[in-house]
Structures are given as structure tokens and as C-alpha cells.
């Protein structure tokens, strides 16, 4: 079985001092125009499309974050992470090995079941933590939740920030909170969910991205999937620019994870186009790019089946996710 490009090969992002001088205003109409033109002028077809969709699977945090999650559901999701495509699609694509997803992402109490189900595969388990999705809990409890998830075997922790720190412009409080979370993660990689749908302006998204990276986040992530507006391309563009600017200023490399509301193969292609155009093709690997999605894999599998067989199977024939 192919091992996914291990995120652990990518060194953690070292924290730098809080620097609000790195912020700049973002013009929303300009960001919207640029995002729209990026995806409009790139059309990926045929074998290229199949390759990009396979890459989307390798970069996917296959997710279940529902109130009615059970260990049984998590085990079924893990089975899908291990075998995301039907055998005839894998054979038809000429692949020697079954691909696997980048990670499986679950709630903290489900980490143990996921770790057991993925034993021996090299697929990491990501856990949300810190009072996901709102984060409105005392900091010591949020840090304890990180430590619990790491203790259960999570190799990646998806934290949420206190939106009020952004909305009130309290950047030092935001920096301190994220730095404390980074420390609680230990050797686990940390993705900072900015919940961009709650942050009102793209300038706030840019500033929060900068603070998260300065405080040591290994990835910045758009959304929990629970906000009214989740991953959008203008927000993604703003965050990618922040990643680029942070690298130019510090030399440090941070990954990007759009998440929430992405359901189609077309979404998977559009987000990869954005990454390739804004950060370069080097970013199109699991160590630096994840797609957080609970219901995108089924359409990717459907499109790949069409590529192999020339026809679409009914979506009910494809398994969970
Ligand atoms: O972190 C991942 C997201 O929560 C998934 O959101 P989704 O259920 O809208 O795909």
C-alpha cells in the first residue's frame, strides 16, 4: 500500500514574535475578481483531471464531525480512507497501489477508534479540539482537550480560535492563545481554524492568518464546517497570500486547509488551481495542503469512474463520504 506523503516529514513551523506591522488591508472586490478569474481560465480535462483528482484524495482530510458520530461510523470512514476507490477504478487508472486519503479527521472521543482502524496504514488521525466549533470554553479546558486528543494518538490537532479576539483587535490575546495551543500539541502538527465566516472582513482574515502563523501554526484552515459561510475562494486567496508573505518575511513554510461545504470534484480542482497559482505546485502535497471535507470523496470517485468507464454510476453505488 502506498504511504501518504507524511506530514511528519514537513518540519513544524517555528513561532516568531507577534508582528502586527505585517498586517495589511485586503480589498474584497479585488480578491473576488482574482479568485473568479483564476478558476475560470484553467480547465483541467482528461488524464490531467484524473491525476489532479487523485491528488485531491491524497490531500483529503476525510472528516466526520457530527453530533451523532459513533465508533462504528468512524471505523467505516477509516475503511474508506484506506480504500477510497473501487478496485476496478484503481485498475482502470493503471495504479499499482490503492491510494489513501491524507488523514481522517474526527472529534477527540473518536480518535482512539480511528487510530485502531488505521493501524499500520500510515494514515494520520487528526482531531478537532479546543471546544470545536465555537471555542467558547476556558483556556485550560481547551488545552486539556488538546492533550487528551494527543494522548489518544492524534498526530494532527485542528484548533479553533476565539473569534472575539479578532473582532476586538486583541492580537496579543490571539497570539498568546494560539502559542499556548501550539505548546499543548507537543509533536503533533497544529492546524489553526480561523472560522473565516465569522471574521467579517478579509483584512481580519489576513491579520488572523498572520497571527496564527507567527504563533506557530503548521497549517491555517478556513472553517469548521459549522459557520454560516465556510470555505470560499476569495478567503482562500487571502490566506494563501498571507502564507506567501509570511514565508517571504520569515522563511517559514505553512500549509493551507480549506474546509467546510466543499462537495464536488470541481471544488477539489478549483482549490488546487488556487494553490498552484498562488503558492506553486510544491504546495500540492499532503504535507502542505489538505482539503477538509465530509462529503466530497463520493463525487471524486464518481468522476474517476467516468474517466475509466465512460459512464457515471448512480451515486448511491458509491460508499460513504
Ligand atoms: O474540517 C472539516 C470540515 O468540518 C468538514 O466540513 P463539511 O462537513 O462541510 O465537509
From TrEMBL:
Pathway membership: Carbohydrate degradation; 2-deoxy-D-ribose 1-phosphate degradation; D-glyceraldehyde 3-phosphate and acetaldehyde from 2-deoxy-alpha-D-ribose 1-phosphate: step 2/2
InterPro entries assigned: Aldolase_TIM, DeoC, DeoC/FbaB/LacD_aldolase
Keywords recorded for this protein, A-Z: Lyase, Schiff base
Pfam families from the UniProt entry: DeoC
Similarity comment: family membership: Belongs to the DeoC/FbaB aldolase family. DeoC type 2 subfamily.
Class of this enzyme: lyase
This protein's name: Deoxyribose-phosphate aldolase
Taxonomy, superkingdom: Bacteria
Family matches, as NCBIfam families: deoC
